[in-house]
Amino acid sequence: MAHRNGTTLRDSDDEFEEVTTTRFNLDKSAVRSVQADEVDISKSFVGFARFENGTMRQGSAGVIVGKSIAVDEVRTGILIAPVVRGDVHTWLDMRSAVAIGFGMVMGKALLAGVRALVRRATG
Question: Structure pTM?
């Protein structure tokens, strides 16, 4: 069941395509995309969630983008948020992305340095 700005949204399968609103509550449902200022999601699946402040409990999401997120037993593919509190399992978060990017830059610089030394030694 979903609630948007105090209004209850009902669908025969409790699945929603896209929701854009100020406040959004989702319980034991699924939504493909949600954009809101505040969300409260419980025991649900969200494909893409973008919000300012939110809470997600015992759910899954493809991508979560937000400013402040409180989570409890959540699994997500990609998590982008400066403030995250709670138990979340991600495939890629902001820290990992920065570390991967830094590693790629350093690796490329190292390879360029090695190539320059080889050229100098053979030339």
Answer: 0.70
